[in-house]
Amino acid sequence: MIEHLPALMVALPLFGAFIAPLFKKHYKGVSIWAIFITGISVVLSLLLMKEVVTNGIIMYVFGADKPTLVLPSGYAVPIRIMFEVDAMGAFMAISATLMSFVGAIYSYSHVKKDTGLEKYYALLMLLEAGILGMVLTGDLFNLFVFLEIAGIAGSALVGFRNYRGEASEAGIKYLMVSSVASLMVLFAVGIFYGQYGNLNLAYIAKNVSFNMVDMIALGLLFASFAMKCGAVPMHYWVPDAYTEVPAGINPPLLVATYASLYALFRVSFTLFANVVIDLARVGWIMSILGVLTMFIGVTMALIQKDVKRLMSYHAISQTGYMLLGVGVGLTVLHDPSKLAEFGRDAMAGGVFHIINHIIYKSLLLMTAGALFYVTGTRNLNEMGGLARKMPITTISFMVGAAAISGLPPFNGFASKFLIYETSYRLNPLLTVFAMVTSVLTLASFVKVFASAFLGPPLEKFENKREVPKPMIVAMLILAALCILFGLFPNVVLDKLVYPAVDALINFAQYHSWGGLA
Amino acid sequence: MNGSLFVNFPFIVVALLLALGFYTIGFKRNLIKVIIGVEILEGAVNMFIVALGYVKGGYAPIYTQAPQEAVGKMVLPTPQALTLTSIVIGVAVTALMLAFAVNIYRHYGTLDVTRVRRLRG
Q: Rounded to whole angstroms, what are the CA distances from A155 to A163, A167, A172, A342?
């Protein structure tokens, strides 16, 4: 069974998604089914990581037992669809499955009052399948297909509350951005196919010559994936989508965003890694984009009154840290001494920040969802004094807020510190911006804490109580992860992050199965 | 007949369609027209891939009743397969976008994108 793990990773959520509509009218049944399926996929993804760390890159070829099989006519190129799983892909797969699982638990009571839940859970699992396919595939066209699956499922979920006009507005915005971005990806795929006659990532990476047309393809891919991961000039869809989506979907939707970030890294590290000259420039663009993203995101967040919208702007700003960390690494990729000195750690900071951010931002958005569940409003000015009514939500919120502001001993501190230390070596100005952003982040979360949880108890919330148990369990899982990752960052770094970073740096390994030598 | 223009003709059309699609998405105010713009973009990309996949003198890889001269000249049908997949995905995207448009009209009473703006700030 182990050798079919990559295919199972995608097949299981797909199977779950297509069974889910059969549970019409059995809302409890479908929720438990979703929790069951996503739970199993968490186990599978951990197995996959273990397999990758012990045995190296897994090649999984659909319809053949080895990738080097050629056509009967002797035309020697890889023609089959294949999954190529390295530690980076497995790392993202763990994030995706874990967050879908937590989201499914949270949804158990959060969306209880809505109708059409069998479709909701079907879409949730479809979204998971899309993300997993994106991060595991080794084929460019396949990447496009899964990008579209995740985009369609994600936007349908954003517009799930169709009794609200705003949900449809956010949904069509997200769908528009994601479909235009995917079409441009497809255009770039077409360019590659026209030149190299193939769609396999490793094969193209081996043959890429970086002429004018390749540069256009790189530009298209870079722009589309940056657009889909919410980097700055194209960030407008993020707050709308994250605000309107039911809070249980926020975790997988966050991972879907970072799956695009993963694709961006995959393109710049694996696909164009052999291009020595211009990669530093791409790295600089990525770092500066990161700094801009974090700064603009946080300044927009400061003025928000809607609690979920405020947190969504922080999601934009935190994406900047990942771009900065990995961008710094990309800048010095072809300079071995600098790479060993700070490049590898910078990338570790960026990659570590992905999973940290997914954890604490999901936690924060879930507490915002809990506030909405209890008070029926998202406006901060109408809340107040909820700390006594909802003690566990308050504690979860405090953990999340401390983590996102980069206070020790929470997980945000560990990754942000790595990024500060290393970006300083490239250019101190980058670090200054990163630190100012962190301070502003703390400021805006103090504001949320004071206006929602502190203050005199309001009369209209007199008989409100803490949220139901499944929501508490989901929040506590994430809060515990925040603290654990913060207390033992070295374990996480060694087991998960450094393998992933090394997989990105040692790009030759990814190409090494031969590309049909 | 100018050979290079004739060969490049599909790609010129692709460029025009791309420009038209982006113009429609960027400057039209009616939501339905914006959706049509996305469709035009999709048509452009599909046409690009199909045009790339055309091999002069090649035969479709259908083995039943293949003519004698097709032996060794059959093309690898990957671009056509890509286009088919992309068309299917495009239908799903369009259907979902139109569904959103219907719902937006129901709640806002308008399809003017400058007035469908309750989410701001």
A: 15, 10, 7, 39
Report in angstroms the alpha-carbon separations of A366 from A106, A307, A386, A394, A425.
8, 11, 15, 11, 36
- Over the Cα atoms of chain A, what is R_g? 22
Q: Are A238 and A316 in contact (CB under 8 A)?
A: yes
Contact B89 A145 (CB under 8 A): yes
- String of DSSP letters for A321-354: HHHHHHHHHHHTTT-HHHIIIIIHHHHHHHHHHH
Q: How far is A156 from chain B (nearest CA, A)?
A: 7
| d(CA A37, nearest CA chain B) in Å | 25
User: Cα dist. A404→A354, A359, A446 in Å?
Assistant: 12, 10, 12
How high does pLDDT run on average in chain B? Answer: 88
Interface test with A, best of B87, B103, B111, B115 (most A CBs within 10 A): B103
In contact, A258 and A95? CB cutoff 8 Å: yes
Helices B31-52 and B3-27 sit at what angle, rounded to 10 degrees?
160
Q: Mean pLDDT in chain A?
A: 87
User: Residue A323 in contact with residue A433, Cβ under 8 Å?
Assistant: no
Q: Rounded to an integer, what distance in angstroms lies between the CA atom of residue A377 and that of residue A403?
A: 25
pLDDT at position A305? 86
Q: Number of CB pairs < 8 Å for A and B?
A: 94
Domain segments of chain B as ranges: 2-119
Q: Please, what is the angle between helix A250-265 and helix A237-244, to 10°?
A: 150
Q: What is the pTM of this model?
A: 0.93
For A361-415, what is each residue's pLDDT tens digit?
999 999 999 988 888 888 888 888 888 888 899 999 999 999 998 888 888 888 8
Domain span at residue A307 reads 2-515
Chain A neighbors of B119, CB-CB under 8 A:
166, 169-170, 239-240, 243-244
What phi-psi label fits residue A406: left (phi over 0), alpha (psi between -120 and 50 degrees) or beta?
left
Q: How far apart are CA A330 and CA A324, in angstroms?
A: 10
pLDDT one-digit tens code per residue, A241-258: 998 899 889 999 999 999
Burial (CB count within 10 angstroms: exposed 0-12, middle 13-18, buried 19+), residue A66: exposed
Continuous segment of H or E residues that includes residue A58: strand A58-61
Low-confidence stretches of chain B (pLDDT < 70) are 1-3, 121
Q: A159 and B31 in contact by Cβ < 8 A?
A: no
> Which one-letter amino acid corresponds to residue A325?
G
CA A118 – CA A345 distance, rounded (Å): 44
Binned at pLDDT 50, 70 and 90, residue A331 comes out as confident
CB A321 within 8 A of CB A297: no
Q: How many independent structural domains does chain A possess?
A: 1
Q: Which of B38, B55, B89 to mutate to test the interface with A (most CBs of A within 10 A)?
A: B89
Partner-chain contact B85 A141, CB within 8 Å: yes
Tell which wins on pLDDT, A273 or A71: A273
Residue positions counted in chain B: 121
Q: What are the structure tokens assigned to A185, written together?
A: 């990806």
Looking up tokens 């089959």 gives: A80
CATH class, B2-119 region: mainly alpha
Q: At residue A517, does pLDDT exceed 80?
A: no
Instruction: Kindly report, residue by residue over A91-100, the tens digit of the pLDDT.
Output: 999 999 999 9
In chain A, % of residues over pLDDT 90: 34
